[in-house]
Amino acid sequence: MSQETIQTQVAVIGGGPGGYPAAFHAADLGLEVTMIDEGAKPGGVCLFRGCIPSKALLHAAGVVHHARDAEQFGVSFGDPEIDIQKLASWKGSVVKKLTDGLAFLAKKRKVNFVQGRAVLDGPGSATVETQNGPVKVEFEKAILATGSSPVVLPFLPKSSRVMDSTAALELSDLPSKLLVIGGGYIGLELGHVYASIGSRVTVVEMLSELIPGADQDLVKVLQKNLKGEFDQIRLKTKATKVEEVSDGLKVAFEDENGKTSEETFDKILVAVGRKPNTKDIGLENTSIEVDKKGFIVSDEQRRTSEPNIYAIGDAAGEPMLAHKATYEGKIAAEACAGKKSAYDAQAVPAVIFTDPEIAWCGMSQAEAESKGIEVKVCPFPWAASGRSLTLGRKDGLTKLIFEKESGRLLGGGLVGHGAGELIGELVHAIEMGSTATDLAWSIHPHPTLSETIMEAAEMFEGKATSFFK
Ligand code: FAD
Ligand code: NAD
After folding, report:
1. How far is CA 464 from CA 228, 378, 380, 458, 468, in A?
2. Segments of the chain with pLDDT less than 50
């Protein structure tokens, strides 16, 4: 039987938030596109086992917290009853709606979707292992968007009690004692979910701070809340050995001074980072290079060392975030269509959807200082925000970093209720070259949390209307 061959102008390998926007945009620009993914529908990690299912569960966690917080102003609902099967099935229905929508949008745009695993044969073709046997896809251009996978710790036993983020999102049962290894994005978001629905959660982080690398003035505010929510937060501590015993997993810990301890948990969630999916995709059959961490090396158009092949998203470097993948996907599609578009984002937002949320973008205070840029740091505490108090919340901080001489906004962050919805204003302000005056003299609606940005910008001149230091 002869092997089926498909010829296409653009092959997009991977249908996540990098790959599907790249495929859609290339099709909108008039190119003939084939999108290949191992899954039955486009969506990738983000829609099937990442951003979307985790945010659905985080919404449920938020409802539990809001109900509890309401007691302070006299509204009581009693203890929540959590039907985890119903919660898991609601989360699944959200994923299905969105991924069905993507399959529909691909069809409408006449993007040819091939389900199977693709391996590059060389710079002009890939072989896809489909359910009906191998299919050869010959392309003029290709966009690699193969994403990333969880880092695995070698000393963990193979056991259903050891979960990665995918298993944790399945919500197959509710462990009464959960250990989360890693105090980064996933550890804190999913730790918060499990703590909210009834698990006793311990987070162990090997470095000296949670969310290492993020502005600790912001993290401190979140950490205060998490301290009340989690059983333990153990910093500068490593899990060194895990043994499956009759009633769970016995874990050995070692702190920075070499002091050891042991504790037994029902389950472990491992969230110690992700690695790019760039092995076993046939890069060795091309001249494409990867860096020390395994990310594909590309230029500002996301073109690799093979001039007709582009790389985007988690496979192409940090930050490993969906919106960065999408932006790169659109750049690569435009480059495939012969446009001169290039990656020139001044600010990539990051949001961790805990309670409170934490979000930041652009240059941090530490980064500006390390570059020798003289900055003026303008913090505005949410305890002085009318809107925050009407929400029953005193915790929160907006912190803006301005270039001292010009007053231009270089970066900023927020921690507080809904911070993730507010960070877009800072991204836009940085992209537009806005100054403290622009932000302070833009009328923000009252009473809203967005006023904290205006008031932090007022601090550039020394004083904000609602805050006096
Ligand atoms: P992916 O989404 O990883 O998609 C790659 C696709 O390629 C997959 O479908 C894979 O099956 C397919 N593939 C791989 N190799 C092949 C091959 N050889 N042939 C065919 N197909 C292949 N980011 C955010 O911005 N916000 C969030 O709230 C957020 N939450 C997250 C929560 C969790 C639990 C996790 C794990 C991640 C989260 N992320 C979040 C990160 C986000 O999911 C990734 O940054 C994003 O999915 C990367 O997109 P991508 O297109 O590069 O790759
Ligand atoms: P992460 O890099 O955010 O955090 C991993 C943490 O584990 C780090 O703090 C690290 O110091 C710690 N660590 C590593 N090895 C350890 C060990 N042996 N013992 C204890 N701690 C250890 O990684 P993640 O949480 O796995 O998430 C992966 C990526 O997925 C993120 O970096 C982010 O790009 C993406 N993501 C984004 C979102 C979002 O945007 N809201 C949510 C989830 C995931």
Report:
1. 31, 10, 8, 5, 7
2. none
